[in-house]
Design a protein that fits this description.
Pfam family, one: Methyltransf_4
Keywords: Methyltransferase, S-adenosyl-L-methionine, Transferase, tRNA processing
Enzyme class: transferase
Radius of gyration: 17 Å
Number of helices: 9
Structural class: alpha/beta
Distance between the termini: 41 Å
Largest sheet: 8 strands, mixed
Shape: globular
Order of helices and strands: HEHHEHEHEEHEHEHHE
Protein name: tRNA (guanine-N(7)-)-methyltransferase
Organism: Arenibacter arenosicollis
Length: about 220
Amino acid sequence: MGSKNKLKRFKENETFKNVVQPNREEITNGTFSLKGKWNDFFGNDNPIVLELGCGKGEYTIGMAQQNKNKNYIGIDIKGARFWRGAKTAIDENISNVAFLRTQIELIDGLFAANEVSEIWITFPDPQIKYKRTKHRLTNEAFLEKYKLILKEDGVVNLKTDSEFMHGYTLGLLHGKGLEVLYANHDVYKNEGSPKEVLEIQTFYEKQYLEKGKPITYIKFRIS
C-alpha cells in the first residue's frame, strides 16, 4: 500500500464515528473516557465482543452481521488495515461494530472489569521463537489481562492455522487448570465447531485452505 493511500485512510479514520483512536498517555494514566462505558458508546446493553489483531476487520464485520444482539470491537494498531472494515460498516450501516486503534498489551486500560463478554483471537502471529514468547497473544501475561476485563462466564476463542500456537495454548491452559470448552485441530474436517468458526473466513484463511493447511480452534474460560 502506497504512503499516500495510507495517509488518506488515516485521515478518513479520523472522520469515522465507529473508529476510536486514543493516545497511549490517556490509556496508561486512567483518563480514557470510554473505559467502563462502551455500552454507552453503542447505545445499548448488549454484550461486548472483542477481536484482537483484527487486520482488515473481516471477522469483526462477519460476526457483527451474524449477531445483531452483540456489539463487536476490532482492535489493531494498524489503522490503514482496519479502515476497510470501518468503511464497510459505515457503507452497509452495520451499527453494532467499532474499531479501536491501539496496542493489545494496553487492553486492561481500555476496558473495565467485567465489561467484556467474549474475546476472539484470529490468526495471530504465533511468535515461534522463544525470545518472542512475550508477544504471543495467549501467553500467561495476556491471559491475566483478559481475565481482568472478562465477565465471570466470559470466553476466549483462538482460531489459527498454526499447529504450534494451537499446541502451545492448549498446553498452557491444561497446565494452569483452565477450562477448555472445545478444541479442534481441523475445524473443516471434524464436526462440532460453532458457525462463527466455519462460516466466516478471512482473505488469508482462504489462502491457507487452498494450500491444504488445517485450521484449528480452541474455546476456553480463564476464570
